[in-house]
Amino acid sequence: MKENKIAMVVFDMAGTTVNEDNLVYKTLRTAINHAGFDFSLEEVLAQGAGKEKKQAIRSVLSTYGGITDEVMTSSIYDKFIVDLTDAYAKEEILPQPNVAHVFSALKDNNILAVLNTGYDRVTASSIIEKLGWREGVEFDALVTASDVPENRPHPDMIEFAMKQFGITDSSSVVKVGDSTIDIEEGQNAGCGLSIGITTGAHTAVQLQTANPDYIINNLLELLPLVS
């Protein structure tokens, strides 16, 4: 890995580059429980973190309730999207500590910084707009769950980003995320490094179950790994 020049780092958004205090999963939990359940935030995080959000609902319902009901899933998802739009309009959303410095350092080293997310493009774009980030300025590209056929842990979003910038060697790509499914996504894409970070949904113990190359506690710890 050390012999390969890093061309691109793909960052998850919520919990990795964006600090929203698990707002999305708190909102998801409320929407699911509104349908007659009583799942804890920990249960929703364990099964839903990092996934496309309709798939997250399916995972929570099937794992803890033994339920596979697409009508219910769609109804919960529709409520969740409305509630999340409301929540993001009202609540404070901040960049994770040191993210601006890390983006800048990557740019200085000619390494692309790409954001990817289990959100749809409308939701992701609204978050980025609220943060005041601009594509091509603070970061180089955004890839969302609604841009590709298959979502995490499939490698489609990373492959989409690679194609966008003409990158053919996946070992020159690094994936960073705060959930096990982020790590699995990086591994399935053949990334040179798949790195877990403890600033979001999953603990270091949970992240370790996906066998990441590294677990970091702050985005600054990424820089020596890619330099």
What are the SSEs and their pairings?
Blueprint: E1 8-12, E2 18-19, H1 23-33, H2 41-48, H3 53-65, H4 70-90, E3 94-95, H5 99-108, E4 112-117, H6 121-131, E5 141-144, H7 156-164, E6 173-177, H8 180-188, E7 193-197, H9 204-208, E8 214-216, H10 223-226
Parallel strand pairs: 1-4, 1-6, 4-5, 6-7, 7-8
Antiparallel strand pairs: 2-3
Please tell me about this protein's structure:
- The structure is a single chain.
- With 227 residues, the protein is of the alpha/beta class.
- It has 10 helices and 8 strands.
- It has helices at residues 23-33, 41-48, 53-65, 70-90, 99-108, 121-131, 156-164, 180-188, 204-208, 223-226, and strands at 8-12, 18-19, 94-95, 112-117, 141-144, 173-177, 193-197, 214-216.
- The strands form 2 sheets. A 6-stranded parallel sheet has the order 5-4-1-6-7-8. Strands 2-3 form a two-stranded antiparallel ribbon.
- The longest helix has 21 residues, at 70-90.
- It starts with 7 loop residues before the first strand and ends with a helix.
Strand and helix order: EEHHHHEHEHEHEHEHEH
Give the DSSP E fraction (strand runs of 2 or more residues).
5-15%
End-to-end Cα distance: 11 Å
Describe the main β-sheet briefly: 6 strands, parallel
Strand order of the largest sheet: 5-4-1-6-7-8
The proportion of residues forming helix, as a percent range, comes to 40-55%
Q: What is the helix tally? A: 10
Assembly category: single chain
Low-confidence stretches: none
Using the CA coordinates, give the radius of gyration: 17 Å
Mean pLDDT metric? 94
Number of strands: 8
**What would the principal axes of the Cα set say about the shape?**
globular
Protein structure class = alpha/beta
